[in-house]
Amino acid sequence: MFDFSDQVILVTGPAGNLGSAVVYRFDRAGANLVLFDRHLDRLEKVFGDLAKSPNHLLVGSVDLTDPDTVENAVKRVIEHFGRIDVLVNTAGGYRVGTPVHETSMEMWDFMLNLNARTAFIMCRAVIPFMIQTGTGAIINIGARSGLKGVANAAAYGASKSVLIRLTESLSAELKLHGINVNCVLPGTIDTDKNRESMPDADYDRWVEPEAIADVILFLSSDAAKAIHGASIPVYGTG
Known about the structure:
Elements: E1 8-12, H1 17-28, E2 32-36, H2 40-46, H3 48-51, E3 57-59, H4 67-81, E4 86-89, H5 105-133, E5 136-141, H6 154-174, E6 179-186, H7 192-197, H8 209-220, E7 231-234
Parallel strand pairs: 1-2, 1-4, 2-3, 4-5, 5-6, 6-7
């Protein structure tokens, strides 16, 4: 069991299946949690138990694609806790199904903004404070599709490829500052939505959100201090 007592963990996309698993894993490990979401009421509904604790900070009205909004939210965290030890960018999305020549510009921009721009803006806002303290960890969520293009998923694959390259560049820039930057590459995550969309699949081969969360906690811990710029596959047996 990892111990994150007195550490401040910032999670984006916390209300999603993976995000909530990450939040509760860190909570059980004693962390002070900061959760960013567009909707404060959604945070309070999903994490009502955390909202009641002064050890945690739930921040709504955060548009992760808007630099000013993010920077103001991060400054609020610094004013409240004085530091950010770990940033976990679980915010993202999945849209596939059309070949490139039928993919709209709106869909292309949506995928790049949701999966790559958000992580870029969050990292840019948090890193100066991590450099000041000389320590920190950043974990991004890539995908197997970011390693190799497949048919009918160009926008999604490109956005995750950008995220992997971003992770590698950040690592090269920050490792001498005591900051670890890595990403995980989940396989098909065992969620109700995925089961509904793929009713004939072998669910036993999928990876549970909690299993991915365990890898994220490892990468956030001192046990992973020697790991920089890695893309860790977490595929289950699929």
